[in-house]
Amino acid sequence: MEIRPTTSFALAERSLWRGHDETPFVGVGARRAVEIESDRRLVAEIERATRAAGYASLRHLDVSACNACVVLSGVVPSYFMKQLAQEMAMRVANVQVVNNELEVRQP
Question: Whole-angstrom Cα distance, residue 40 to residue 19?
């Protein structure tokens, strides 16, 4: 009698023998698509908020997101603007972490 582990790898291996459409990992791609769409919405909301603030220097920030972790990059003229951009990003719903990589450079 052979004892085989029932790990996800073993389940995937067995499903390959039955047919490629029966794999237990079908939902993984769909879940990742939802995360990507959620990140796109976060970026759009943060960009909308920084543009609506009325400061010209905040209109040209680079905003990216991955798994609700936001990265702000670009150049701003003061530490106040850097902090303001970070606060605006943090106020957007579902943002977990803000990595503020904005560079302060005097005009």
Answer: 35
What tokens appear for 105 in the block?
């450079």
Q: Domain span at residue 16?
A: 8-104
Total residue length of the chain: 107
Burial (CB < 10 A; 0-12, 13-18, 19+), residue 72, is buried
| Residue 34 included in any domain | yes
Which of 107, 44, 57 lies closest to 83 in space, CA to CA? 57
User: pLDDT tens digits for 65-89?
Assistant: 999 999 999 999 999 999 999 999 9
Split into its structural domains, the chain has a count of 1
